[in-house]
Queue: 3 jobs
Job 1
Amino acid sequence: MRSSGSTRSPRARPPIRRFVLVIGDDHPRACTGRRLLRRGLAVAFRPDQASAALPVVLDPFAVEPLSSADAPAVERGGLLAVDCSWNRISETNRLPGNGRHPGTARRLPMLLATNPQHYGRVGELNTAEALGAALCVLGRRAEAVNLLVGFAGGPVFFEVNRERLDRYRRARSSDAILDAEHFLFGSV
């Protein structure tokens, strides 16, 4: 008979690497991306130092939504959020360089913002909410909750979006995410 000490324990998954590219066109005090960087909860992304494993880019204009099918790519390359003003987001492609994303672009599934600037608006999440939502969709709820501690509306984000985040987390593909969005929001 084996002793309890010889049983293998499951390996803890390393945390998802989180990158933020700060464009700098919003008010510095309201910039959740800068706060994530100052708190050490994300690292500044510099396109010139991109490695072979590129991050998955959270892009509100991407056609395909993030789903658990993206987990292997995110675990390899991380998540990249571009921190810029919602008032100016559609003016240009916000990424520097040749206008192409440094990695695979995915939009977040439809969620309600709980930040003071955009409370209750569909999809207008701040950078911290966006990264937290992505982590939840990828089955990393504890990381997501930890990320939003100390942000206005952060703890409420998970309560307001509980049903949505649970459905999206269980969805195994982008098509399943689209079905969940249709069920939750109708034909928005």
Note: The first helix runs from residue 32 to 38.
Job 2
Amino acid sequence: MTPRRRFLVLAVGAAAMPRFAFAEAGGPAERLTAIVRDPPSAAALGRAYRAQFLREARGEALAAAILATLPPSARTGDEHALRGAIRARVRADFAAGDVVRLDGWTLSRTEGRLAALCA
């Protein structure tokens, strides 16, 4: 895996964030960004996503858009449920061709939105 792509393994590494960071996360946006492996790297692409998709430029809109694509159990569940649902959603985005192109990267829509939450 290239270093540039490493942060896109958003929900894979269980050690990506300390458990207390997820537990202390307040609202939906904070819970979602707590599972991002490398928020500073994600933020760079996230700024490009926000510039390209102005309707989703606010954190609340991004979080709502992501959560709307997840099963209800993942929206209110623990960190593992959320991570698993995000992984499944990323795979489904690619399978459906729901991708975005940002700065030479091809990301699933969900990856783009998560990166934008970090911006």
Note: Residues 1-7, 9-24 have pLDDT under 50 and may be disordered.
Job 3
Amino acid sequence: MDYVFDACALIAFLNDEAGAEAVARLLTQAGTGTDRLFMSNIQILEVYYDRIYVRDRAYADTFLEYLYASPIIILPEISRDAIREAGRFKTSYSMSLADSILCATVKSLEATIVTKDEELKAPEQAGEFTVLWLN
């Protein structure tokens, strides 16, 4: 199965918050090839600056190296079609730019979002995609 991590999913894992166990399980499954995990550079940026706030830039830089060596497939670009889809999500659901890119990524991959972000409930309820909610 394919999953796309929202930044808050990885942050929950790093901070040992609710849902950390589910994220750990998905990381393990990706490491064995059972599932595939994706993140866009936008969500990586969100986690990176969170790590700066939590500790400092050196820690964030070390974490970034770990992340790029992890089983998460990093999507470095946003395609023209994804830009259009992200624009639709942004205007249709009044969500953040980062979340609109996340939703467009999920749609293009036909994947499941892994998140805690309540902002994604409306598009999920509209049948745009499926969500693995972290509790």
Note: The beta strands are 2-5, 36-40, 72-75, 112-115, 130-133.
